[in-house]
Design goal:
With 250 residues, the protein is of the alpha+beta class. Helices cover 22% and strands 26% of the residues. The chain has 4 helices and 15 strands. The strands form 4 sheets. Strands 7, 9, 10, 11, 14 and 15 form a 6-stranded mixed beta sheet that branches. Strand 9 and strand 10 form a beta hairpin. The radius of gyration is 18 Å and the shape is globular. The N and C termini lie far apart (47 Å). 36% of the residues are buried.
Length: 250
């Protein structure tokens, strides 16, 4: 391996979500690369601290967790307790292992693409299909799954009642490349929204990578066009397939 893997890839390696051959190749690289070895040690230390702060019993499984600070004050991104700047988004990410169990068939889109939002917490997991409105219980998390079909890139954002748009899944300000293979793939972080009110989650599958800022701007325009009513928002009008879910936070 002539270049260092992205931190996103190392997070997925730590989460155990990479195919066997890729895992083996990265493990060889990490064992001989001091820089990547330090990154992996940092991920392991972050996970240990997180599990000490949040008892295991609060989870349905070991999952990555993302938190957004509620209004009234605009929130800022937090990564393992450290403030970082990712446009106007808020995201706390902790690497862990997959949560999701088998689920019903996904909504079908053009080119065989499909998507599902999965909700988990102390009780049984449940699925929400694109277009669904779902009420969340306290401490529940969501995770997004997709079948890419002919699409090559994926991104997800959310917008709340205050018009704050968060980039949930992206890499270096752009869409993520979809996972290889025709089956269903789960984006490697589960997300927990705090506060009350509505949260619209939008997953975008596209042929070309999209800029996070452009998608966020489109979401903000959609919120403004709906006169600040998240439940009344329509499509964002970005290139590709959009899949929307409306969540009601407790």
């Amino acid at each position: 391996m002539s270049t260092h893997p992205l931190e996103w890839t190392l997070r997925r390696l730590h989460a155990g979500e990479l195919p066997g051959p890729e895992t083996q190749q990265l493990q060889v690289h990490v064992s001989s690369c001091a820089e990547c070895h330090e990154v992996m040690k940092g991920l392991e230390a972050d996970q240990t601290r997180f599990e000490q702060e949040v008892p295991f019993e609060r989870f349905a499984a070991n999952v990555e967790r993302a938190l957004r600070k509620p209004p009234p004050a605009p929130s800022r991104p937090r990564l393992n307790g450290l403030l970082i700047a990712v446009a106007a988004t808020v995201l706390l990410v902790v690497a862990a292992r997959p949560l999701l169990s088998p689920s019903p068939s996904l909504n079908r889109l053009k080119g065989g693409a499909s998507a599902e939002l999965r909700i988990g917490g102390d009780g049984p997991q449940r699925a929400a299909q694109p277009g669904d409105t779902e009420a969340l219980l306290p401490d529940e998390r969501v995770r997004l799954g997709y079948v890419a079909g002919t699409y090559r890139y994926v991104m997800a954002v959310s917008v709340d009642d205050t018009g704050e748009v968060s980039a949930l899944y992206s890499e270096q300000g752009m869409s993520l490349p979809v996972e290889a293979g025709a089956g269903r793939h789960w984006l490697p972080e589960s997300v927990q929204f705090t506060g009350t009110g509505h949260e619209r989650v939008v997953l975008v599958l596209s042929e070309k990578p999209l800029q996070v800022e452009a998608v966020q701007a489109a979401a903000r325009r959609g919120w403004e066009a709906a006169e600040g009513k998240v439940a009344a928002m329509s499509t964002l009008g970005v290139e590709g397939e959009e899949l929307h879910w409306l969540l009601l936070k407790p």
